[in-house]
């Protein structure tokens, strides 16, 4: 197996930024990170670049014209390649509420892509961001906070049979995440059942009171979906989910850092109040991401994109058109240190998805999922499982 050394990078480690370090990769894993010159079969000079752990997007509906609810396998491969070019090394296709038939088709497609990406001899598949599982955004959410979701598919929970309407992936190790509003009929029982069945439950699209949210936490839900969006607003006499989430150190939150869903000043406030150990970045991007302004037929309606802001016919924001790279750039522009941004873009999503032993940081033994940014914040190199997935203006081959 060919060994690869990435030399002279500014390496963002879990606890510090290390200047002039080299990372040795062998068999898809990080062997070591050192300030010493490392011998390898192949070496790339990353002088002037900053090396991050690859970004992980736990909430993305699609991009480049592809929607996860109705895509064929090649469409998801196309999204994976697009994401790799933007520094993403792992993602969860996120499904909006839909019919049982469409759910089954989407899950089969996701499973096909996961198998193709992990086949040892997959010459026909270009390396792209790994599909890690599935995220169901609903259908067990509140019709009072539906946002852009289609409320005609929303459900309450009466018994275990209701959960069986969400097909699971048969692929070993696949992540199953679901956004749930705990106040729906049977919501607490649903969270308990999902937790017992190894679902990751995130609280969102909700107007739940703190008392109900306490019950949800006790039942196993300790994360919140696109915090501050699609949930009851903060009010001095009705604290609701936002105050509850801010006050609970044992609850993590993900945020859409596009400057539209949350004002940049509020992003700074969240970092100060919640801290970056409990915040994860997501894109929440839709099929229009990467295509520019215009009108797009998505989820049975027309979604307009203008100046980077989405809106549907009801005037609601309907997802975003950013990538995780855009979110990283925005947080860096707000003065959040690179080590903390790396935590929000990779480490915390990996912990949420329970894959932190595999990826999410630059450390010995972890998967070699890496992204190198230049001083302008552009992706120059993305490595996924030790393989080059994207390279822009190839770095110089380092001399021995």
Question: Can I get a quick summary?
Answer:
By secondary structure, the protein is α/β, with parallel strands linked by helices.
Q: What labels describe this entry?
A:
alpha/beta, 9-stranded mixed sheet, globular
Molecular structure report:
- The strands form 4 sheets. Strands 1, 2, 3, 4, 5, 20, 21, 22 and 23 form a 9-stranded mixed β-sheet that branches. Strands 6, 9, 10, 11, 12, 13, 14, 15 and 16 form a 9-stranded parallel β-sheet that branches.
- The longest helix has 19 residues, at 100-118.
- Helix 4 (187-196) packs parallel to helix 5 (210-219).
- The chain has 9 helices and 23 strands.
- Helix content is 25%, strand content 28%.
- 52% of the residues are buried.
- The chain is α/β, with parallel strands linked by helices and 400 residues long.
- The model has no long low-confidence stretch (mean pLDDT 94).
Runs in which pLDDT lies below 50 for 5 or more consecutive residues are none
* SS content category: alpha/beta
Mean pLDDT: 94
Strand content: 25-35%
What gyration radius follows from the Cα positions, in whole Å? 21 Å
- Report how far the terminal alpha carbons are from each other: 19 Å
Shape: globular
Q: Portion of residues in helices?
A: 10-25%
Oligomer: single chain
Number of helices: 9
Number of strands: 23
Major beta sheet summary: 9 strands, mixed
């Amino acid at each position: 197996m060919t060994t690869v050394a990435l030399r002279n990078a500014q390496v963002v480690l879990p606890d510090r930024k290390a200047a002039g370090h080299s990372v040795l990769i062998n068999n898809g894993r990080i062997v070591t990170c050192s300030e010493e010159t490392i011998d390898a079969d192949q070496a790339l000079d990353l002088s002037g670049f900053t090396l991050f752990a690859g970004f992980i997007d736990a909430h993305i509906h699609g991009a480049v014209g592809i929607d996860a609810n109705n895509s064929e396998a090649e469409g998801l491969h196309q999204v994976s390649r697009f994401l790799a070019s933007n520094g993403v090394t792992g993602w969860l296709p996120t499904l909006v509420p839909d019919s049982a038939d469409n759910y089954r088709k989407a899950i089969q497609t996701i499973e096909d892509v996961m198998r193709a990406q992990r086949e040892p001899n997959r010459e026909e598949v270009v390396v792209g961001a790994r599909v890690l599982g599935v995220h169901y955004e609903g259908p067990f959410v509140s019709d009072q906070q539906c946002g852009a979701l289609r409320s005609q598919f929303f459900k309450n929970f009466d018994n275990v049979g209701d959960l069986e309407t969400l097909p699971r992936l048969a692929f070993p190790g696949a992540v199953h995440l679901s956004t749930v509003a705990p106040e729906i009929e049977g919501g607490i029982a649903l969270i308990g059942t999902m937790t017992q069945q190894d679902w990751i439950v995130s609280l969102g699209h909700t107007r739940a009171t703190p008392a109900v949210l306490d019950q949800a936490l006790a039942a196993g839900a300790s994360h919140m979906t696109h915090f501050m969006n699609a949930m009851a607003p903060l009010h001095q006499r009705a604290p609701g989910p936002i105050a509850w989430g801010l006050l609970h150190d044992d609850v993590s939150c993900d945020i859409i850092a596009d400057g539209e869903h949350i004002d940049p000043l509020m992003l700074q406030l969240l970092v100060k109040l919640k801290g970056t150990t409990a915040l994860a970045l997501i894109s929440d991007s839709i099929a229009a991401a990467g295509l520019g302004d215009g009108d797009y037929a998505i989820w049975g309606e027309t979604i307009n994109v203008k100046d980077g802001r989405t809106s549907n016919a009801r005037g609601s924001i309907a997802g975003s058109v950013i990538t995780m790279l855009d979110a990283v750039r925005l947080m860096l522009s707000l003065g959040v240190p690179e080590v903390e941004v790396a935590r929000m873009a990779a480490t915390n999503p990996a912990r949420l998805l329970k894959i932190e032993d595999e990826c999410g940081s630059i450390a010995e033994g972890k998967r070699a999922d890496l992204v190198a940014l230049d001083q302008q914040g552009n992706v120059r190199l993305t490595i996924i499982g030790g393989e080059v997935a994207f390279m822009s203006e190839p770095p110089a081959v380092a001399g021995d």
